[in-house]
Write a structure and sequence with these properties.
- This protein has 265 residues and is α/β, with parallel strands linked by helices.
- The protein folds into two domains: 117 residues, NAD(P)-binding Rossmann-like Domain (Rossmann fold); 118 residues, Dihydrodipicolinate Reductase, domain 2, CATH 3.30.360.
- It contains nine helices and 13 strands.
- A six-stranded parallel sheet has the order 3-2-1-4-5-6, with helices on both faces. Strands 8-9-7-10-11 form a five-stranded mixed sheet.
- A hairpin with a 2-residue loop joins strand 10 and strand 11.
- The longest helix is centred in the N-terminal third of the chain and has 14 residues.
- The two termini are 26 Å apart.
Amino acid sequence: MIRIVVIGYGAIGSDLVQRLITKYGPELSLGVLLYKNSQTIEKLPKQVVHLADIKSVKEYQPDLVVEAAGHQAVRAYAKDCLDAGISFLIVSVGVLADDKLFSDLKNSASKNKSKLVLPSGAIGGMDYLRAASQVPNPTVVYESRKPPKAWKNELLGLGIRSPITEQIVIFEGDARTAATKYPQNLNVAAVMSLAGIGFEKTQVRIVIDPNARGNTHQISLKGDFGDVKLNIQNRPSPDNPKTSWIVSLSIFAAIEQYLSPAIFM
């Protein structure tokens, strides 16, 4: 029997749980980690086991733990799981802009024969980016373009409250700064950096665009291998405009790959 634990039951976590139940049915034993006083517990499907702490997660002995609850959840639970020999999938990849944390998690996985799993999330082309990083001095530029509602809190922080009628560039710089400054919006920049040429060399441009029809990601790669431009326009999640609807599908696909005897690279 497949045993999986999902941390969190928000927009991504709830969608993922439903997909796992539909796909695997009685072959799946599924737990969700939520604080014991969480009001979300009552929303869990009846076949899902509620787990209240990391001790109960380890006693559940899952094949894989999937984080879908933000950076703090990674910091709180990832190392404990990896140390216990339990593989850990991170949705909030931006937290790995912290080099020490990433190094500690990799070391834990290596020592305990577990895996740190990093899905591509809202974008594609990571296989090409990994290959392109092997040549000398490639350039990688990522542009994020989202509608104002995805940046509501950030705009308020900048003192911008009136309707946005023109594009606003709120950031240009390296991916480490971008992922650290905007942790809820820039997981894509972190995934690209880890798969490619690193946080300092990956350049990021963030545009708030009132005419954006979705969450748009443009990746430009240039080097001895050629010149590549990849443009992806995702529909925002109906429950969280900061993230794309495709993210939960990407996580589900990553879980299927992890469990599959055949791995597509």
